[in-house]
Amino acid sequence: MAVEIKELTSRSENYAQWYNDLVLKADLAENSAVRGCMVIKPYGYAIWEKIQRQLDDMFKETGHVNAYFPLFIPKSFFSKEANHVEGFAKECAVVTHYRLKNDPNGKGVIVDPDAKLEEELIVRPTSETIIWNTYRNWIQSYRDLPILINQWANVVRWEMRTRLFLRTSEFLWQEGHTAHATQEEAMAETRKMLDVYAEFAEKYMAVPVLKGAKTPGERFAGALDTYCIEALMQDGKALQAGTSHFLGQNFAKAFDVQFLNKEGKREYVWSTSWGVSTRLMGALIMAHSDDNGLVLPPKLAPFQVVIVPIYKNDEQLAQIDAKVAGIVAGLKDLGVSVKYDNSQNKKPGWKFAEYELKGVPVRLAMGMRDLENNTIEAARRDTLTKETVSVENIAVYVKNLLEDIQRNIYRKAFDFRAEQTITVDSYDEFKEKIEVGGFILAHWDGTSETEERIKEETKATIRCIPFEGEKTPGKCMVTGKPSAQRVVFARAY
Amino acid sequence: MAVEIKELTSRSENYAQWYNDLVLKADLAENSAVRGCMVIKPYGYAIWEKIQRQLDDMFKETGHVNAYFPLFIPKSFFSKEANHVEGFAKECAVVTHYRLKNDPNGKGVIVDPDAKLEEELIVRPTSETIIWNTYRNWIQSYRDLPILINQWANVVRWEMRTRLFLRTSEFLWQEGHTAHATQEEAMAETRKMLDVYAEFAEKYMAVPVLKGAKTPGERFAGALDTYCIEALMQDGKALQAGTSHFLGQNFAKAFDVQFLNKEGKREYVWSTSWGVSTRLMGALIMAHSDDNGLVLPPKLAPFQVVIVPIYKNDEQLAQIDAKVAGIVAGLKDLGVSVKYDNSQNKKPGWKFAEYELKGVPVRLAMGMRDLENNTIEAARRDTLTKETVSVENIAVYVKNLLEDIQRNIYRKAFDFRAEQTITVDSYDEFKEKIEVGGFILAHWDGTSETEERIKEETKATIRCIPFEGEKTPGKCMVTGKPSAQRVVFARAY
Predict the structure, then answer these.
(1) Class (C level, CATH) for A298-405
(2) Model pTM?
(3) Residue ranges of domains in chain B
(4) Are strands B170-180 and B270-277 parallel, antiparallel or unpaired?
(5) What is the distance in angstroms between the Cα of A43 and the nearest Cα belonging to chain B?
(6) Does A421-490 carry CATH code 3.40.190.10?
(7) How far apart (Å, rounded) are the C-alpha atoms in residues A429 and B386?
(8) CA of B73 to nearest chain A CA: how many angstroms apart?
(9) Closest to A39 (Cβ–Cβ): which among B48, B66, B70?
């Protein structure tokens, strides 16, 4: 049955190549004719739609609404917040003209020099500036607060080295931008949205994450505090899967957004922003998949079950079709998404390999003997095991199986992370262990000098100052100076 | 009760001003700091989300899947299809640089002259070129066909005069791009998607539409045929609400997309594209709304019912709250979306006016006498009538009322269009009647010269050559030359 139609590099051979092969061969995405921009193919986009729909529901449950702000941002807006400009106004797409014209030499079209913009427009790399410029007109009094808005959008950050989903010049994301009357409320919002992200990652993506704060050096440009969720990939590298920023009054001051508080005094508004992107697709792929292809958690699989008929002639197929129709109806009644692939131009072996590659959680196969015995073969993608089961109650069996797969994938990733998380006390040991990969809990003196030195010498960064777990003080592994708690180091995507 | 918190220009006074006032005051959208780009506010975006969700479901039911293609298109791509370049590569946003740097004179940031792109990138005004360049690698044989892909995206067409939703430089839309093995199949797809649009407009937006073909002069740049749905606004002007294009083999030839047919011969692929945009919001607003504000069809209203308590003190409010909780639960059980507005900082009169302005289809109000009598006041937005009804079976009552409102809004628009559709035989009468507005059915000789002359002299365009209705031949009202059937003229948005 192991029909190798599309060869995949193995993870042990070359993890980066395995990832790239998998994204291409499972039809998730590909590079486009535009440098650094990807095409998200239908199968990949169907997973992204599942991610979007679930997150959107969770945002709405927590009181947020969606809106849409312009793609373009006037160049001058970036200069208004001093840190923000350093972080974002550099590698970006700049619109300078608004018209093309026919080349007078007859060679296609050229940019019309007469159509130069007075002020250049930047394709949004993130929308704090344009949004806070808009909020100025929306906020007069405490009665206008809070504003709890989210936007689903495309953004562009010009990247020199790109990798499908993980780092692309254009990517899709959501960005929440909230406005609050008090610091406490904004801080609570920042934390709440981090918790939403963590819940999504763990319950839906089946990816365990560490929650924590970034060091000052790793904060979002313009934020007073950045919280993050950090996941561990199978190669031992960390991946930042979502961030939530407490922006203080920085953007309110930069764009002069004040409100009259209950006491009738003018105050600057407090704000947060938070986002996840198509990068989550990279995390999802790398966290669970194996050398046979994708492994998708049932909750995010475009279809959870595929049914493949095994037959010799049209008459047999007709009999199986009739039997399967009832199974499909039963599965749909229980809310299970199912595809019956009775296409005649592909052999069962090809189909088995194809759906394995695409990570369909459960595969059901029915042949003539099954038909006689009222049985069906059920194979699970996560363990690659299969068993023959009765068609009676198959829908309930599959539903339970999907729940078990969702739990098992999470547990596997959780156990892997537990194995790959170690505590280290000396810098020598750190340098040795960082080569193996994984999360390293170590003491750090809190200075950016030490952080930079570690990064230069080991390529490891502080992923976060974790919110949970042991919080005992100690001594920095590098300088011996006091440390309030261990922080999490790793090499990262 | 008529608390005029936000004054609206009346339609008879100034229709254009009424529209603009309404979009702003109902919190649907506003102009942004970027010329021609709008901010879609949460209430407006919630309507767009309803539109999106319903259309997306209909696209999927007809076998389509979503994908995502790059925002940017290399300039040279536009030159590949001769007609397309004339239509689209003119007023567009051109990215020429990919980096900013600090101004050496210390004044913010400037475009880095060293970061000039080798080839300029155009922000997509429509995606045929980048998509067909991609399809070339996806299509080898007839087995790879059809490709039935849709994309939800933002696009940019630099516009000099913009109006919220109706004509903006950036807008949101969906664009379907399909690839087929035969001309017949592509033509059937073109027609099928027009029918989907018409069904959506009539059943969900409650806007009756004419289906027909555009004249050659009004076709999409690069299409062999453009079908459209045309709606009539209350000021007697037409609005093109959706288009579906039969592209023949034009883009396949421009991007060299060939396939091996069943006979083993190489052929160019046949294609279609079809789209609707946030312009639909303009049609929705203008088709039904009145001098009191928006009138929304229940199927697209962000919430269908609002409940307002009328009370004198906290004790009374608590009693009403308790009663309303049961009503809300009953409505939700029947799938009705409902908002209970018991906010204390606004008076009932203010709330009544606000929800009237926002077009909420049904308003329920409960005071102390209602509480005693087990009744509630139900007001419908479309007719502005109200009645006091029993709380028993209120959910069923409201559900039926919503269906009635949906039907009534459609019928009203349908009757209006019937009144405003006339048949004219002489050009003199045409010139007179076009001043009144509405659809005019008249004979035309089929030449672009006559079409242009009518446009110049009367500002009327041929909206479509209708598919349905009377098809008797006659003589062109202008030239007296033979005409195969009457076509539909109107002044248009």
Answers:
(1) alpha beta
(2) 0.96
(3) 29-72+125-288, 298-416, 421-490
(4) antiparallel
(5) 8
(6) no
(7) 78
(8) 7
(9) B70
